[in-house]
Amino acid sequence: QVQLVESGGGLVQAGGSLRLSCAPSGSILSFIAMDWYRQAPGKQRELVAQILSGGSTNYADSVKGRFTISRDNAKNTVYLQMNSLKPEDTAVYYCAAEKELAGWYWGQGTQVTVSS
What we know:
Blueprint: E1 4-7, E2 10-13, E3 18-24, E4 33-39, E5 46-52, E6 57-59, E7 67-72, E8 77-82, E9 91-99, E10 103-106, E11 110-115
Parallel strand pairs: 2-11
Antiparallel strand pairs: 1-3, 3-8, 4-5, 4-9, 5-6, 7-8, 9-10, 9-11
């Protein structure tokens, strides 16, 4: 069973930065995609950023230019660097990973709160 352990959430003022980490059990290279999603109260879960096994990335329009997803194979960790945070970025952030023919795995989520 794959486990994804997230860390790095917290409370930050608007304009500040946070870096989220996601460490999967097993090799990070075994996943064809690793994503960060978020879910704010009363809203649907949305894709924030994605990094594919080849290294290409995708971002939600709302975070382009502010958030950066990256992968450190040596540390077996995926990161989400979040800069210029806004109150509307407040949400529970989830790490998700896809294995070919096995489907998706999800972390437990980490709270990010941005105060105005």
